[in-house]
Specification:
- It is a single chain.
- It is globular, with a radius of gyration of 21 Å.
- Helices cover about 80% and strands about 0% of the residues.
- It folds into three domains: about 170 residues, MFS general substrate transporter like domains (Growth Hormone, Chain: A, Up-down Bundle); about 50 residues; about 230 residues, MFS general substrate transporter like domains (Growth Hormone, Chain: A), CATH 1.20.1250.
- The chain has about 450 residues and is mainly alpha-helical.
Length: about 450
């Protein structure tokens, strides 16, 4: 749902809710951070107490969240509804794959999991197109209401046709989940609110200190705990460390792109939400093609070389994106976007395999959960970082300089080309910053990625 929300941001920004630039960031990131931190414990709870039951609970929560989002009379209620929707989405996402794995035989599972993966990717593309059409012709509120109706239909189908599966007695680290949510949300608050409240504001500083302290406590608390949400001792394994950090920074770059690209297309290029959604469809299609070939490429040139190539292409793509202007033709933009799709398609599957392959067979579940967690955390940090850079740079050129009310989008929709140019300049700075971060971190990822497998020591 994040991709659809990115398309709706320009419309929400000029709505009767009058959101500030930072509140717009929370509309997207609030959902993402809850989804990220609850994905693993949601799956564990479903395994222990009943997958079908928790899938139905997740769908119900999702429906309520979408209805509340579509009917929200204030920006504060919209933000609360988005957090609530992220809770439901975490249960839905984690339980669907678990049910599919459990109702198929060992021989059927590869095909079933592949089908699930293709369905998720296809749903994302359909949602981007349909969501753009809904935003354009029905408004952003209609988008949420239609998604609620679709989720109600899914709930009825699950209740009628999905079988119950055998429960598993697993331990659930709810306290760890709470610590991660508090710690990461505190850090995101510092990143997002710093440009508006001031980086030396007591609230911002206190939030950052609390976030670091809570995450540090979680790291110590979870060290060597096999049933922790995230066993921090696993990071002693170099290849696993490379995989987790690589996945996180790769998706940080991609979700920073996703967040701002739809705004660029609508604010700078003048595209409608529907056209903006259609304009990005070649990217996931090409990503699917490259991802499918990444293992064969790795067989020829090696996994490390393939990952290095993918990360290098991502850095190149960000460097090229940082040269965008309002006059850049779509034919040029799509080449840059396809480069990004190539980079993540080459590197992400191998980095994910490095995480899971670094662990013994009895800890594959932990590896899968860690991969999902790092992907979603990267998404949350990427959105927050890109949004903060853009608004800080943009408002540094505006008299008064504070990103309050909806002046951000109103200036851009006023037809003032100077404001549009300043926005694009801010976007370019964001791409350059993310590119430098990716370049530096990639050096460590490649250095950590080794051919030996120390899983036995885990």
């Amino acid at each position: 749902m994040v991709s659809v929300m990115n398309l709706a941001i320009p419309t929400i920004s000029t709505s009767d809710l009058h959101p500030s630039a930072t509140q717009l960031l929370w509309v997207v990131d609030g959902y993402t951070i809850v989804f990220a931190c609850l994905l693993v414990p949601a799956g564990a709870l479903a395994d222990r107490y009943g997958r079908k039951g928790f899938l139905l609970v997740g769908l119900t929560v999702y429906v309520i969240g979408c209805l509340a989002s579509g009917l929200a009379p204030t920006i504060a209620l919209l933000l609360a509804a988005r957090f609530f929707t992220g809770l439901g989405a975490a249960f839905v996402f984690s339980t669907t794959l678990s049910i599919i794995v459990n109702i198929h035989t060992e021989q059927e599972r590869p095909k079933a999991v592949t089908g699930w993966t293709v369905a998720v990717q296809a749903a994302g593309m359909v949602a981007a197109t349909a969501g753009g059409a809904l935003v354009q012709f029905g408004g952003w509120r209609m988008m949420f209401l239609v998604f609620a109706v679709l989720a109600i239909g899914a709930t009825l189908c699950v209740a009628a046709y999905v079988p119950r599966t055998q429960n598993v007695d697993t331990k659930v680290d709810l306290a760890g989940s709470a610590l991660l949510i508090v710690g990461l949300t505190s850090l995101l608050y510092m990143i997002i609110e710093g440009s508006e409240l001031g980086w030396t504001s007591p609230t911002v500083l206190a939030s950052g200190i609390m976030g670091i302290a809570v995450i540090a406590y979680y790291a110590v608390r979870s060290w060597g705990k096999r049933h922790a949400l995230l066993d921090t001792a696993l990071f002693r394994i170099p290849k696993l460390r490379a995989g987790t950090v690589g996945v996180m920074v790769g998706f940080l770059a991609m979700f920073a792109l996703f967040y701002v690209n739809s705004q660029y297309l609508q604010f700078a290029k003048g595209y409608t939400p529907l056209v903006a959604g259609l304009a990005t469809i070649p990217m996931p299609l090409w990503n699917a093609v490259v991802s499918a070939k990444s293992l064969r490429i790795a067989d020829r040139i090696g996994a490390r070389a393939t990952i290095a190539s993918g990360l290098a292409i991502l850095v190149l793509g960000l460097a090229l994106l940082s040269t965008l202007t309002a006059a850049t033709p779509y034919a040029v933009l799509i080449v840059y976007l396809l480069l990004m799709a190539t980079g993540i398609g080459l590197s992400a599957p191998l980095l994910s395999n490095a995480i899971i392959g670094s662990l013994p067979a009895n800890r594959v579940g932990a590896g899968s959960g860690l991969n999902s967690l790092m992907r979603e955390l990267g998404a949350a940090v990427g959105i927050a970082t890109m949004g903060t850079i853009i608004q800080a740079h943009f408002f540094s050129h505006i008299a008064g300089g504070a990103p309050q009310s909806s002046i951000f989008s109103r200036l851009l929709t006023s037809g003032n080309t100077e404001m549009v140019d300043k926005f694009v300049s801010s976007v370019d700075l964001g791409y350059r910053t993310i590119g430098v971060v990716l370049l530096v971190v990639s050096v460590f990822v490649i250095a950590w990625f080794r051919n030996e497998n120390p899983a036995e020591s885990a």
